[in-house]
Amino acid sequence: MKMSLILVFLIFLISACAEQTRKSLVLIPIEERKISAKIENKSAPNNKVTNNEQSLVIIALLEDSDRLSRQGQSIKAAATIERALRIEPRNGLLWQRLSKVRFQQQQWKQSIAMAKKSNVLLKSNRKMKSENWNLIAEAYEKLGEYSKADEARNKYSKQD
Amino acid sequence: MHKKRKASHKLKANLKKSLGTFLFNKWSFQIIVILGCVFLSYCVFLDFHIRKKFDEKRWTVPARVYAQPLELYAGRRYEKGRVIKRLKSNGYKNVRILKGPGQFLVRGSTVEIYTRQFHYWDGIESAKKLKIKFNNNQVTSITEMISSQNISIIRLTPALIGKIFPLHDEDRILVTYEEIPETLIEALIVVEDRHYFEHFGLDPFGILRAIYINGLDGKLTQGGSTLTQQLIKNMFLTRERTFTRKINEMLMALMLEYHYSKEDIFSAYVNEIYLGQNGKRGIHGFATAAEFYFSKPLNELNNAEIALLVGMVKGASYYNPRKQSKRALKRRNLVLNLLKKEGFINKQELKIAISKSLNVSDKPRWSSAKYPAYLDLVRRHLKRDYRIDDLRNEGLIIHTSLDIDKQEISQHSVEKSLSKLEKRKGFISGTLQAALVVVNQHSGEVLALIGDRNKKKNAFNRALDAKRSIGSLIKPAIYMTALNRPAEYNILSSLDDSELVLKQQNGKIWKPNNYDKKTHGDIPLVRSITKSYNLSTVRLGMSLGLENVIQTLKNLGVTSPIPLLPSILLGALNLSPYEVTQMYQTIASGGLQIPLRTIRYVSDSNEEPLKQYDLTVREYIKAETAFLMQYLLTEVVQNGTARRLKQELPSLMPLAGKTGTTNALRDSWFAGFGDRILSVVWVGRDNNSSTKLTGSIGAMQVWIDMMKKIKPEPLLLIEPEEIEWRDYPDMSNPNSSCNQIKSYPFVKKYKANSIDCY
User: Fold this and answer.
1) Quick one: pLDDT band at residue A22, thresholds 50, 70, 90?
2) Which CATH number fits domain B164-355: 3.30.70.940, 1.10.357.10, 1.10.3810.10, 3.40.50.300?
3) Helices assigned H by DSSP within chain A
């Protein structure tokens, strides 16, 4: 009985001292973290998988990438293309897709280098190669390197 | 008179007594008031302290580092046995019937897996029941068993390879109240605190029961502490048994209960309680303990496993199931019986649970000691973007490109080959050292890294920190500088391999020599590199200009300072194996320099993506120049210093490679690549004394041993459109006749001048 009285007294004391609000234990408040890296979702190209010569797994991954692009998740779309590239690193279509994503992300130099890589791998596919040269030309223009852009356009017209 | 005096005395005495009582009462009141104020102030202080600490409480959670997931798809060459090994090492149980995630079974050439759910960068991959068929060590189909639909590609949960721990060495995985299995809640209530959801922090009946039982036993066998008190004790107080501590504990328990909900306190308890020790690190919380003792997530524990962990709350080391299995089993069964008695499990469930062995995994799945050199590199990469406190405390999830198969094969090859080499050369066992880097040259991802022949040691990470002369591994940079001038040089250009004397800037005379101590007169460029002739290379380098060679080295990705000295032309340049790998990556990927990387992405503790580490490329080397160099490096394997590779790995040809040996045979190097794998190996001694090994005998032996198991795909030489092939007499091999015709690659626009057959 005494014990209960003491407890009641203590609770009374504490309640007198304490703030009246009930708070929840927050395990880790993410929003308070000072981690600089953040994700930005930028708009992404709305590409369709058209090349039927790709292996099934590559087609499936490209479809995933397209879906992510349509949802505006260009970073995830690019990550999915990278996943496909780990399986087929010498697939010119994949390098072209990545080049297009980088173009969308305004990474002009990346886009140029990847389109060139795609061209090396797309030995006889003139249509896709001309697409790459066009992409390269546009990226050079964005960089203000007009003579290189013209050079790329010449190659583009030759492919056609 | 006497009576009067007596009465007067009595009156005085009474007065004195009354006054004394009055004075005493007055003082005692004041004392009580003062003591009350002190106590009140103390309570205010304690309350403030506990709320502040609880509100600010951030459980420091170590960063968790994962290897790359195993990706399977129809057509992938991957043995069934290796899949099973990977599943087992990830804590999957081999069962007869798939009942839940984390289980698999094998039927002939088929493996059925109930995968675990996992958060990847591009979304959640939910748990699935899969049937994977194999034929001739190749995956032929993957079917989702419930829908019978074919699946094009799956990822198996990646292995946890390490953690970056808080400074006070606590290990912890956090769970929310909703994530706590019901049986765990019931077992904790039954065993530790029956009235948890009714009491207010203290359990008077529990205390009375403890006093009664302790009185009967004559020992302190029963504790009357509630879960709240235990939590307070774990979080704020010491383990000493004093009256003051007990009072503090009781007061704080009351305060905590007043301010926070039962669910909040319960989940805090589940995350905080101490459940063992992993070396110097404490195992805190049930989720960490589930991983530590059973290699699986908390939600996959069965009744017996939960009962064992709950039983361990009483004394984690006393009931340590790895050391005190009998004692732990007895305690587990006691908990199970209590669960049955309270009706939380039925008779059948009790029977099944009791029949089970402790089922504790041999050792923790994660161990920073397992791949220490690789984790060291991951840490270095992470430090570029994250504060060390965030890495240690914020529970970041780090996904890397570590390929466990390749890492283990590499480690094994290093150990085996070095022992063999030591035996052959008569060295004391353990005196040779090695470092090795394996990368995918097209993505720049580091797949394996060895910094010491002893896999558990990483005091000195040789792959990153041992900067040694690279010898002939530098030569491709010189030849690429030449081939980048197609109007002047092609791969059949004539080079002069005659005696050479150079006066250096410091006035000293430098007289380089060939390894065979001979001169070879005029030779084609292709032979100069395949035979790794020094004289012709130095002459070529000097005519190209040292600054231009240095620029090529930088374009290839070398960032260390390079001295402007002719001796660099023979590799008097100290680089780490990692930096050499970057250099060869640029060649192997066709001229695109891709910064080497280990991290694919980082997520926060709630699996929310924070940062993706994209594939980035740098275009400093022309594709045609890189192609010509790739071709020349295949010639080194076909006809040159690395031709033993062709003899030992005939089915994998063509491969490309370059050997490197330094003065007095101090360093033995080999860099080689196939279609999607590049590896650089260094063998040497820490005291820089002679290894008595050339590049082709020492480092290349390690490379061969490794590639026999990895089986890289042959190098696919895809020439850029600027390249064309022309027929010329075979000049790669000095033994070939000039009548033998061979196709050589040239840059289209530039016709080779008249080429003599040497």
Assistant:
1) very low
2) 1.10.3810.10
3) 2-17, 56-70, 74-87, 92-104, 108-121, 126-143, 146-159
Sign of the torsion formed by the C-alpha atoms of B588, B593, B597 and B601: negative
Q: Regarding the domain delimited by B415-598+616-747, which CATH topology (the fold level of the hierarchy) does it fall under?
A: Beta-lactamase (3.40.710)
Give the B window 630-689 contacts with A, CB below 8 Å: 675-676
Instruction: Classify residue B237 by burial, with Cβ atoms within 10 Å: 0-12, 13-18, 19+.
Output: middle
Residue spans of the domains in chain B: they are: 70-161, 164-355, 415-598+616-747
H helices of B404-468, in order, are 404-425, 462-465
For B202-302, list the strands marked E by DSSP: 274-278, 281-284
Q: Which pLDDT belongs to residue B168? A: 63
**Catalytic, out of B112, B186, B192, B249:** B192
| Cβ <8 Å between B51 and A61 | no
Buried b vs exposed e over A121-159: b needs ≥16 C-beta within 10 Å?
bbeebeebbbbbbbbbbbbbbeeeeeebbeebbebbeeb
Give yes or no: B472 in active site: yes
Q: Return all residues near B249 (Cβ < 8 A) that are at least 6 apart.
A: B225, B229, B232, B233, B237
Fold for domain B70-161? Penicillin-binding protein 1b fold (3.30.2060)
DSSP letter, residue B152? S
Phi, psi of B101 (to 5 degrees): -60, 150
Q: Which residues of A touch B202 (CB under 8 A)?
A: 7
Tens-digit pLDDT profile for residues B184-206: 999 999 998 888 988 888 888 77
Q: What is the pLDDT, as a whole number, of residue B6?
A: 62
Report how far residue B739's alpha carbon sits from residue B744's, in angstroms, rounded to the nearest whole number. Answer: 15
What is d(CA B235, CA B231) in angstroms, rounded to the nearest whole number?
Answer: 6
pLDDT digits (tens, 9 = 90+) for B114-144: 999 998 888 888 999 999 999 999 999 999 9
Sign of the CA dihedral running A82, B446, B654, B82 = negative
- Rounded CA separation A138/A144 (Å): 10
Which residues in chain A are closer than 8 Å to B443, comparing Cβ atoms? 82, 85-86, 89
Q: How far is A20 from chain B (nearest CA, A)?
A: 8
pLDDT means per 10 residues, chain B with 758 residues, are 58 64 70 82 80 68 91 93 92 92 95 94 89 94 95 92 73 82 93 88 78 63 77 74 75 87 89 86 89 88 95 93 93 94 92 91 65 92 84 86 96 96 92 96 97 84 96 97 96 94 84 93 94 96 97 97 94 96 97 96 88 91 96 96 94 95 93 97 94 93 96 92 91 81 91 67
Return the minimum-mean-pLDDT range out of A31-40, A90-99, B201-210: A31-40
Strands B397-400 and B63-66, by their bridges, are parallel
Mind listing the domains of chain A with CATH numbers? 56-159 (1.25.40.10)
Q: What is the pLDDT of residue B468?
A: 96
Residues 369-388 of B with CB under 8 A from A: 385-387
